[in-house]
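Weekly modeling sync, notes
Attendees: S.R. (lead), two postdocs, one rotation student

Agenda item 3: backlog of single-chain predictions. S.R. asked that every request posted to the team notebook include the full sequence so nobody has to chase files. The rotation student volunteered to paste the first one in as an example of the format we agreed on. Action items at the bottom.

Example entry:
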Amino acid sequence: MIDDSMDRTVLAQTLYPNSSNPLIGMVFPVAEIVDDKVIPISRDNFCKTQKVFITSHYDELEKRFPDHTLFKLKVTPNLKKSDNIDSTQACEYIATANMADEAKARDFFQVINAPLPNPNGRLIQTVGMPSTKYIFIDDETNVYGPFRWKPGQDSNSLVLDFIDAPLPGVNLANAQIYQIDSKIAAAKIVDVEDSPIRIMGGLEVVRTGAFYDYASDAEVVKYCLKLQSDIGARIIEKSKVDSLVLTLQKVPGNAKPFIKQRLGKLSSIIGTIVDVQSELQDSMLAAFATESGREVMSKFIEQNEARFLDRLKREKESEIQSSLMALNTEQQRAQQRLSELDAEKRQASDQLQEIKENIRKEIQANQKEKIETAMAETNISFQKLKSEMGDVERQLAAKKSEYSNFKTLSEVSKQIEKLRSVEEFTKEEIKVLKDSKRLLQSEAEKSSEHLRARLIELKPLVDAINGSYFPETISEKNVNVQTFTLPQSENFVNKQREVVRAIATMLAKHGRVMQDWEIANLLVTTQQSFITVLAGLPGTGKTTLARLLAQVQGLTPRLHEVPVARGWTSQKDLIGYFNPLTSRFQPSNTGVYDYLSALEAETEQERAMSYLLLDEANLSPIEHYWSSFMDMADGKEDRTLRLGQQEIKIPSAMRFIGTINYDGTTEPLSQRLINRAPIIVIDESEITHAESLTTSESLEIAFPLPATQMDELFGKSDELPVFDPREEAAFQRIKKTLVNLDMNNGRPVSISPRKEIAILHYCNKARALMGEDNELTALDLAVCQHILPLVNGNGTRFKSRLELLKTDLDELVLPRSAKYLERMIAYGSQDLHSYDFFCW
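Predicted structure, as returned to the notebook:
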């Protein structure tokens, strides 16, 4: 029983757009797809109108699927029916253009009711053109196919041809098809209600069929000529044909029934051709021997000169087509070889990266050994100097002791007199203090009863002010997940790629298809940065991407979302505040305090990564309400968050992800934050939908991985890495252009040491993952995410600096940074020469 409240997937054709709005329209549901099987639908089990209403971009559907081509469409129940429309006329289901997907040619076949035409013509009459690339023919006795087809000379005819691509489970010889009993095939064919269309899902039915030779006479002759050429024989005349057939049948490889059938046809065809040719030749010679015959011949040639030339042209075209086919075959072989070379190149690139990494480690090890040797020598010198200093201090102490007894007697006498004066003064002070003590004790005894009574009166007020509350119990948030360690592998880059491809596959299953370099960029950036900013226009999927990144890694319990509100000014809005009246911490309603407390309480050694998502982060100034975490973004080891009298330790495995819009209603990012956070722009034009890409099979990786292993694969190195030579030269050229103090190029753009270190760490882990086609891809992304956000200036002179930078990026082959900078320059030129990274 089908649930009418659930989404359904149907095969459909476009019908027509709305007369007043071409962006909406109707499509015709042909059949339903349930568990990869084609199921018939009717007015009773689908919709009385037998239509689906397309609510947006109907014109794109007609462009993608013209001429009533079948496509798959995910439809949802229409929950907002208008009261002004008769219920029998309202569509029960609706959809949008982006819910449509291509119906693969190998999965669906239209069945045409018609006699199987003669193989020498293969022309059939039909009503309209088929809706699928491949078809079957049903003559009510047998079903034949599969066929490829092309339109005939009019709209009601088509010409059959053989399939041009391999199909699963189909193993046919040249000019061969399947013959299936119509009664058996009927179980796999769906008849469409109110339509002559019949659809067969899949090719399972061909397993019950037999092979059928559908070769034309020309194809039979051509095939047999190939066989006879293999044995070196030649067809000279009819008397030789039977002998040739017998000879071919004796060849061991030609004993198959299919080949014997072709050879039998050849004998019949050649006999008929020779008889007809002989009779025709005799008749023509007799006719053309007369005067009138010669006159007719001459006139016929003159009248049909164009026809003869056209025939000659077609023959030449056929020869050229044969040559082109041979060239295409060679091209395919070359492309296959190119693919093999690409694979070899990729393998060589991996080996090169591994060699570079080994050399870098060896250099670092040698440098470390030299430093340790120098430190040891320095320590020896230091201990020697320390020993000498001790000797000097002991000599100095002896000298002091020797001369300390030489004070004069007069000095001692003066000191005694001074101490006596102090003694007399102290005695007087003690006497005064004792008198004051007695007076105070007397006053205290008199007023104690009065104070006690007054305190009883004031106690309710004091309790009201201080609050007679018991500390509230913080709700426990479950953030625990089990981690799975990635198996050991000698090739570090292969381990990185396995993780990237596994995540890419799972994202694609959730409808978000991303290339490997995009996944690698997200993993490296979020792993190395305490906060990562996802920027873009509303609706580009920033928040969804952050959620999916956590979900596919099995980290949903460790993802906490905070919708930022306008007007946040301090830590109290994000976390909470210490209430001095109640002497307790008052958490905010964001749940951040509970989340951080739960992370702090974890005891697992191999804990997983955790993410705190600040959605619409720049609705309020980030540097205000996030100020408590700003210093932690510098990588300081002390991650203690002080909340009045309480402290919370922020774990090293926690990261912030902020999503921001720049649409005129949000706060600009401060340079202080930009200097600490990479900014990844999510561009709608770069989003790939799941239907446009086929992903590879999922790799067997269990998520989530421990945070320590994620740090090892994508995080920062323990020691400061270095650029490759090409990266070093490119970075220094970019830096020189930006920091150049020539005022003819406007205000310079400074790159802080913090940014340089971040780029070094990024390239170190991303270089091997992204460098297959361009060794500078990692640096290209780092420039786009770390350096270009620093650009902010105005004036035509500043534009000249950006144009110089654009030239550098083009010549260095950094295409993504160059493309984004080009957009910044274009928008800035239209905006009174005000240039900014956030220019969408």
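Discussion: group reviewed the output briefly. Residues 716-836 form one domain.
Action items: rotation student to repeat for the remaining queue; S.R. to check formatting next week.
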